[in-house]
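Worked example 3 (structure in, sequence out).
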């Protein structure tokens, strides 16, 4: 983490994107985390992006993990870095984009801090993120319902959960890709 922050400090014209690992199906990350039982099974796909954590973290407690993510994003969006980026010699439109991204990252940091605070204060929420509690936290339920609006009542809870499985015939992502390529090769040339 120290090296990443030093990279950010030394290269103000470069904007690193800090993301939370997301286990999308058909990826090696998904395959590994599925086999290790580290995907939060009740977490809807809507939460498969930063600032949400749809997996259990192997080497960090969720609070420590969020502390690190907040620290890194803070380094990219600090006022001092924004001033250095805007004062740079790059094109005006790039400097404008840096300002917009800094504002966006500040909004994201507020949500990261809220989740981090809940991890520290709400034992059920923390237990869910540690992979010890199968109950879906009320925080996510409310957020999900708010995003769906009136349609939330039409989607029962069990339909909100993703279907997590490894294909029995293709436990490795490489095999899935090879089979897909073979399928494309079998198509007539005009339909590819």
């Amino acid at each position: 983490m120290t090296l990443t922050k030093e990279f950010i400090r030394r290269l103000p014209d470069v904007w690193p994107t800090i993301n939370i690992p997301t286990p999308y199906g058909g990826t090696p990350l998904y395959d590994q985390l599925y086999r290790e039982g580290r995907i939060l099974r009740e977490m809807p796909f809507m939460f498969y992006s930063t600032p949400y954590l749809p997996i259990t973290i192997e080497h960090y407690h969720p609070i420590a993990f969020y502390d690190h993510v907040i620290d890194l994003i803070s380094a990219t969006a600090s006022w001092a870095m924004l001033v250095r980026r805007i004062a740079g010699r790059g094109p005006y439109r790039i400097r404008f984009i840096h300002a917009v991204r800094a504002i966006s990252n500040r909004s994201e940091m507020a949500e990261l801090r809220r989740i981090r605070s809940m991890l520290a204060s709400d034992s059920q929420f923390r237990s869910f993120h540690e992979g010890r509690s199968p109950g879906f936290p009320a925080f996510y339920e409310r957020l999900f319902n708010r995003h769906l609006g009136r349609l939330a009542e039409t989607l029962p809870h069990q339909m909100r959960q993703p279907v997590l499985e490894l294909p029995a015939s293709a436990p490795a992502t490489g095999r899935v890709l090879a089979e897909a390529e073979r399928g494309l090769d079998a198509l007539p040339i005009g339909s590819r």
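Notes: The two ends are 45 Å apart (CA to CA). Residues 183-192 have pLDDT under 50 and may be disordered.
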